[in-house]
Amino acid sequence: MAGSFNLQNVVDTYKSCLSENKEIYIKYYIAGWRELVSFMNSLGSLFSFISKDAVSKIQIMETFLMGENGAHYLTVQSMVKFELNNKLVDFTQSGSHPESGCRTLLRLHRALRWLQLFLESLRTSTEDSKTSIMCSEAYNESLAQYHSWFIQTAARLAFRTLPGRDAFFEVMNAGSQQQVVAMLGEATPLISEVHQITEDLYAKNKLLELP
Ligand SMILES: CCCCCCCC/C=C\CCCCCCCC(=O)N[C@@H](COP(=O)(O)O)[C@H](O)/C=C/CCCCCCCCCCCCC
């Protein structure tokens, strides 16, 4: 199981995500995903196809952040403005910018909704709740609609191998179960706020269905 994973690190990155005027720092947004991927890597090889996809999207965003236009990728808001003003976003399949920042972040944004639902479910779970069912329900309500039958089947197969609730809480490395629940209670509103701000920004700019 994940040696260095710590739920507090996840809470801290989401705390750092928002600027005073509620802009979302991409650096911390992707740091949150990096942290979560380190957790997922401990779950076994059935999760590696999910992990690879998440890492490839994190790397695309890191490349933009460190590139010559990196200053425009400071926040999600500045990225959207920059890419739209410079026609760097493909609104159809056949464009010349298939891996824009806006499109890549949209995939992570959809996954953030899954995370929000899953963590809320974990937070309110009882001793006999099953992580595999909580994970599946959160997936069905969020990401599944965007995935092919093949991906959905592979994902649901992986969920069935998730450790039980007690082991899961332990790996979060945040103390007793009560302490984990308290920390989840801190994490979920932060994640919800980041998700809602991105959702509103993407809706306003008609970016929610990028191919
Ligand atoms: C606090 C600790 C508890 C929670 C631990 C959560 C750990 C989760 C870590 C990472 C989540 C992975 C995020 C996956 C991003 C998927 C983005 C996506 O939808 N990609 C698809 C579309 O991309 P394009 O083809 O359009 O470029 C791509 O097709 C997907 C491929 C892989 C399958 C994605 C399945 C996602 C399932 C998410 C649940 C993860 C389960 C983790 C179990 C704890």
Automatic annotation (TrEMBL):
Residues in domain Glycolipid transfer protein?
25-173
Chemical reaction(s) catalysed = N-(hexadecanoyl)-sphing-4-enine-1-phosphate(in) = N-(hexadecanoyl)-sphing-4-enine-1-phosphate(out); N-(9Z-octadecenoyl)-sphing-4-enine-1-phosphate(in) = N-(9Z-octadecenoyl)-sphing-4-enine-1-phosphate(out)
A GO BP term here is: negative regulation of interleukin-1 beta production
Q: Which domain of life is it from?
A: Eukaryota
Keyword annotations: Cell membrane, Cytoplasm, Endosome, Golgi apparatus, Lipid transport, Lipid-binding, Membrane, Nucleus, Transport
| InterPro entries membership | GLTP_sf, Glycolipid_transfer_prot_dom
Where would you find this protein in the cell?
Cell membrane; Cytoplasm, Cytosol; Endosome membrane; Golgi apparatus, trans-Golgi network membrane
Family annotation (SUPFAM superfamilies): Glycolipid transfer protein, GLTP
Where does the protein principally reside?
Answer: membrane
Which cellular component terms (GO) are annotated to the entry? cytosol; endosome membrane; Golgi apparatus; nuclear outer membrane; plasma membrane
Q: Which GO terms describe its molecular function?
A: ceramide 1-phosphate binding; ceramide 1-phosphate transfer activity
> What's the protein's topology in the membrane?
Peripheral membrane protein
Similarity comment text for this entry: Belongs to the GLTP family.
Q: What is this protein called?
A: Ceramide-1-phosphate transfer protein
Organism name:
Electrophorus electricus (Electric eel)
